[in-house]
Write a structure and sequence with these properties.
It contains 8 helices and 37 strands. By secondary structure, it is mainly beta. The longest helix is centred in the first third of the chain and has 12 residues.
Amino acid sequence: MFDTPQATLPLYGVLAVIVVFCIPNAHATTRKTATKPPVKAEHLIVTGLSRSSALTHPSGQTTYSSDRRDFGNQVGQSVADMVVTIPGVSFTQGNGPRDTVVSVRGSGDRQSYGLKNLQILEDGFPMTQPDGTARSDLIDPHAYQGVDVFEGPASTLYGNYAINGAINFHTRKGADLHGLELGSDFGSFGMFNTYATLGLGNEHYDLMIFGSDVRGNGFIANSRYNTSTENVRLRINLTSSDRLVLKFVNNVTDAFLPVRLSLNQYHANPYQDGCRDALNAAAGCASVNLLVNGRYGSKVAMSPEAAGLGRFDRRTVVGLRWEHDFNNRTTWHNQFTYDQRHIDQPTSPTAYVGPYNSYNFSSDVTNHSQLGGRPLEAFGGVSFDYLDFGSQTYNIMPLGGATRGAMSSESYGHQWNLGARFQEDWHFASNWHVIIGLGGTYSDIGATEALYNYSAVGMTEHSITANRFYFNLAPEGALLYTPSKAWTLHTRVGTAYGTPSSSNLFITPQGQYGNNTQLKSQTSVGIDLGADWHPSPNVSMQATGFYEFYNNEIVSQSAGVNTVGSYTFNAPASQHRGIVLGVEWKPLPNQLSGGRIKLSYTYDNQVYTNYTEVLSSSTLSRRFERAGNYIPGVIPNFLNARFLYDQPDGLLEGLGGYAEVTWRDSYWLDNANRLKAPGYALLNFELHYDPPTRLGWIHRLHWYFEVQNVANQTYIAGATNISDSLQANGQQATAHTLLNSTGSIYAGSPRAYFGGVRIRL
């Protein structure tokens, strides 16, 4: 069976309307390419760079960025510290200290872990496995120079699962470091991070080696952790035309894990104080029900701490890229990446164990030439990735230490994606250029799952085999106009797709174990319209409006009464629309030259336009229309405002800091829109000191101090969706009932203090 997204068909008609609308302005002042703001801020990247791939500098894609000066002076505990100032990006707490769920225009707002519906790159190497899974545990911000976020549907260049875009993290350059940097962070809840970065480089090579070990007790019961990370990038210039780039990342996560709460439990006891042995529901303590003998029969309730729940995972990525310049206009990239994710996750009444090995090969060519006497940049490439996995789930016994009982299921399978893509960026007039592209992917997903049931008389086994094939296409087009040095106007129509994963294929619409053969790829078509305005070195503003049409979004729902569980199906249609705004402003450049204001704001409105949900009780099933309802988990408004100051000269030269306000709006938790997670606003302070060069060796030191959540607010850092339920009278459960639905809420950190020092040798 094949899937070709029908939503892409209106693309060329929309592009024609855009061109007709914009061309009458072609007489205005001309520029060959968009000019970046003189001040480093979030900015729109509109052209490729020499010797770079379109994957790391996509033409026409709406792009916002942050660099090291936005996150390098603070504690840097997770990727959240890197992306908090980027418009269009929000984040919630995942399963573990650094498992931050990063969301671009709502991409991950419905997830409990990882980075979903995005393609993740690091220094141009893929960090998303072929099944669409990426996690942020790998990321220690101390190793990075910056991050670029490419927003909107992006499967033309990035292939499968780039539904909401892509993110490229880039590590520090060895030549910029030119030596050894040692540092330590320390602070509340026993947090201590020791890290080192070695950087060397010249015109022949560039080497960066980073290592860190961070540990802490956490602020919720059963959340202590120890995470180590190694990150290496080596570039060698073999000749004037040939370069090799080696990439290595290794991460070991050893983290104990609390259980997500209901809203009632969260209000009663957000940090699970005193819950190790006392499982008193009135006290808001979370628990898991474990089989006493690990196979069948009676169960006993235990706290996560007593049971020993956690995540004990390892991730290793090794990549090699060869870059060859045929001439000064044409560059060829060939790249291979091996990625192993080995998981051991007793996170619930069952433990999930197994290796996920993936292999990725890509080859692409970038050429700079002319068409009609005007510059033309052409990009074309092919890619192939393959994932094989074998996983088992075990019942956990109530003996402590996440003791394994009998195996409850095992699954073996594969997924591979074969893709091709091209993009043309033509500067058809001195201040105009048009971008068109087309990408496609053929996907093969196959797996076998064995289910084991135990009783007093023995064991029974049920085996299911599923195999699906998908073919998807994603055209795109963009138009950019730069009427002056101060303005860049851009519009884009992008498309994307994401196939199901193997875990979606084993329960049929009838609610029985079997091959879920009707499941289609989810697809989207998105329209961006925006402007980049920087009238002076003291003002930079970027604004983008987006409207995206989704078809066949992959969701889970009840299959009816007397079934084995929920099944995965396609919600026919939904719409995502919003506004993304970024501002950087120096309000008093003469009187207060070191002061500036940074602002990022996102409005994200997502609604179902065609979706009927089935709810079931033990004796009854009913259908409920969700068209017009807000999609749960999506934060409709979020804002970050920073007021920064760095003393540029005088006695206090090098002293700086910021005050920051982060606001998240309340959002729905269920499809029926009956229960909301409350919003919050946090105030943070940071103070740092970089001694000037006139102070001699002291110049090599950097100090900082930070206070997070100054007002000590209790707030929700992460909330997964809650399933609506059907009452005995055939009506949907009320908000009062849903308040007791567990498995959703993680509380955020109370007031916390952090400090740190690093020295460059």
